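Predicting structure from sequence has reshaped protein science. With that in mind, we have picked out one protein's residues alongside their backbone shape tokens:
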Amino acid sequence: MSTPRPALPRRTLPGRTLPRRTFLGGALAATTLPTAARAQAAPPPTLWQEFTRTPFTHPQIPYIPRAGRHGGGDHRPPRPRPPVTRLSPDPTADAAPAINRALEAAGRAGGGVVVLPPGTFRIDGLIRIAHSGVTLRGAGSARTTLYATRNLTELIGPYGSRYGGDKSSWSWAGGLIWLAPRARWDALTDAIRARAWPFEGWTGNRRDEWSTLTTVTAPAPRGSWTVTVADASRLRPGALVLLRLADDSRHTLLQHMSGDGPGPAAYTWDDKTKLTSYVPYEWPVRIARVERRARGQRVTLERPLPLDVRPEWDPRLTTHVPALTDSGAEGLTLEAVETPQSPHLLDKGYNGVTLQCAYDCWVDDVVVRHVDNGFGLVAASACTLRRTRVEGRGSHHPYFCREGSHDNLVEDFTIVRRTVPARPGTQLHGINVEGLSSHNVWSRGRMEMGTFDSHRGLPFANVRTEIVVENDGRHGGDASAGPLFGARFTHWNITVTNHRAGLVKIDGLAPYSATVGISEVREFDQIDVPDFTGDPHARLEAYGAPGSVRPRNLYEAQRARGR
């Protein structure tokens, strides 16, 4: 008697169950289709596949693998260099003077490390890192605590807004750990104490403190790594310069930041006085190579151009306000004395850590607690914030990125919702970006409260990726600061736990943007409206399927591809 033949295994397809023979037969038949028919049947490329074909010039997705310290390639703090100063905690005494003396001595010596062992250090003043190459290092955020008893209003003075009224500029500036070069610190604090407002120099890029190194003599497209200059004799590899672009009377530079086209061209730019005060656009970048050829002198940059370079914008490479470089704070908790959260824009300055006029600096394994504002990037570029956390009572800006901050990386960050019913707090905004800031990345975050705050001021080409958010904040920004978004904003694999759309699903708001792999969301209490008329040329992909898109993390995938 013959042995029965075993049944073929079965393959399941959507809506049907087929035997293996049928499945294979269909597959074989498909391979015999004419080329044109196979091309017609092929699915369209995903946004990621599109990007890999044109990584420097994709219309919706910015090129961001070089965000962060040292071109994104160095997230680790440098090895300790002498002098290394170790301080002992004494909770009964103010430790701020001793810490600042040690930081100053390290700076005068050309760099060094100030080590804080496990324990609690009371500080009645703010901590300043004013020299390059200086590290403030605790034993870990769970082991070393700085307990701050006073705010910036008490320590420096009331910092009124340059825009008038009773607003406090401590609502968006300064930190109780403050990394800023001495020249910027002195100019800022002198003006505050003299009540010399409006004071335009607090961002660091004062218009009277640069000089032209050379002019750019030929147009160059966005994404190019090189520019042609008139005279490269003052340029050296490794030097930090500013690419400076001025706007013209028709505001074509601002239109270009918005993606160009009829919508930006029809927008009313002239009355946006706060926005127009941000130009000329200034982008800090290091020079990688200088070439002098018979056909012209060319400069290769550390990063590709963030915008076109056009002759009508008077492009030039200039000197930079002396920046703080290769300095950082790590391994500690900054806890402010707990006070009630201030009314909006009246913050006293119980602020956390701020990097101002900084380049290639870092913050790693730092927690801030009971603060008005958490971590700030102000005219700061190419910096990395890693393993940071905002907790305790609510804050105004858990993270703020403003005044021309570019190419920064904030990864593995957390905003914690307070669970004490009698003392709840709110995160009014969340992860903020404004003031023409571009190519900044927020990656692998958990936000138990807040939102993806675009604070007007036309930020462009920024990325938020692999983040879980309870989306309960609102955007801010003065009407004179102009549009919420410029071109090439990307939100990639975002889980919205409360399904609120505001500022996360941006395909109807941001021109030339990409919203990829986010939760299904619904509109309610929506205050976000488009700034430009017409087709925004935005893309929406894998809507309602957070975490399903591959690659999972847009920044890490771009890093893995290399240049």
Summary: Confidence is low (pLDDT under 50) at residues 1-33.
